[in-house]
Sequence to fold (483 residues):
Amino acid sequence: MDKTAVILVDTIASSYIKQPLNSKNQSSWEIVREKADLLGFTTYAFSKEDRPGFLAFGGDLYSLLHQMDASLTPASHYLFLHTHMPLVDLGLCRALLKAHVANLADYSFAEHYPAGFAPFVLSHSTFKKLLMLSKGNNAPYDENILEKFIHQDINAYDVEILLAPEDMRFIRDAFVITDKRSFSLVQSLIDLEIKADNLLEVFRDNPALLRPLPTLVNIELTSQADAYPLYSAFPLQNQGKGHMDTETLGKILQELSDWAQNAVVDLSGMGDPALHSHGQGILGQLALYPDFRYFFTSRGSQRVFLEEALSLLPQLTVILSLDAADDPSYQIVWGKGDFHAIEETAATLLEKFPGRVYLQFTRMRENEDSLDAFFQRFRVFKDYLLVNKYNSFCNSLPDRKVVDLSPLTRFPCWKLQRELYIHWDGSVSLCAQDFEKLNVLGKWGEKSLKEIWGEMNLIYLSHWQKQYPGLCKNCDEWYIFNF
Fold:
């Protein structure tokens, strides 16, 4: 029996893994194939597509393991690589394999590295066990499925974990090619020939590498609402109320579709999008761009509009801010409104659009006693209940925080790394904390969103230097991750 075999798996249908990636014009799967050969072991390549030099499998876990069992010469250990992970570190591969063999492990993986740099290793006996256990499992294969499968009964396996020299989980990004943003992220690193253990040095020198494109774009359709809760900063601002016109929204969406087409678009901001004065026109514009995922956060007072929006836009998710379990606690948070009418709207939407509507409870001192009752009252919808952290908008609002969730050590802001915030008038701020527009970087129409996004690199760099200017100093949202 051979000591080790490399299993190279190709499951990603994205065209980006076939595009030239490095200075040699090699694609992702060509780079990974070359790295597999450099390891010096026999390589078996499997693809769910018809690809020369690859053995075909059905795209699910069992069909891969079954095809492996039928096609390869048995080996003592199997090291798995994937064609959409061209940054996989060969030194890390060898170190992981060495630890796996030395400790007679069933399953070995690396921890605290960003996804895309480390493989995993299975022993032959574990492979045969998983082949038997996965029979009938039609779940699509991806690079994480075997880990999830093993973790269902982790105590049944001898597991070896190779820890990174520094904890890099705060980077919160995956260096695997699935779309335009991830392609740009990997492309910026591919010719640097960096080692996984030196990643943080690279990012400290050039943090902008982590900001190729936004993952979430906040577009404030309106600052208008029929009520503002205790956790809203809108009553403090002096910028006035307004709506984004449908033409401007359409042009912004067009620019995003050309530049950051994989971004999630949140249309909430300070107001309630269901109260936009030209709601039908807004829905019409959104429908023209079906590839975006849209989010509304609403009080839920406009049932007809929300039903129409959910019916017209299958990619829309609605979050209803309920924040209470009964009318008295609702009045404390919102000050007015009919709790029971909004509860009825919530129940109707949850039943009519399963999986696309959520109830949210923003946790504060004023409603903390209602949290258990909230979960009890809406237990039938338990999979669609959200608890939101209180945001003081950099100490602009009173301290109503129930518990401090912030990490012990501050790291660079995830909002600056991944999000873009556009006010209803087209001005673009550093983030949603700038409700008074004191840190406007530019205005859409005068600058492109791409230009404005690039100008944010300077303040993101300051975070890597442990400097937090202006609003950042008192911010408590830097560790909140959305998309």
Summary: The chain has a mean pLDDT of 94. The longest strand covers residues 2-10.
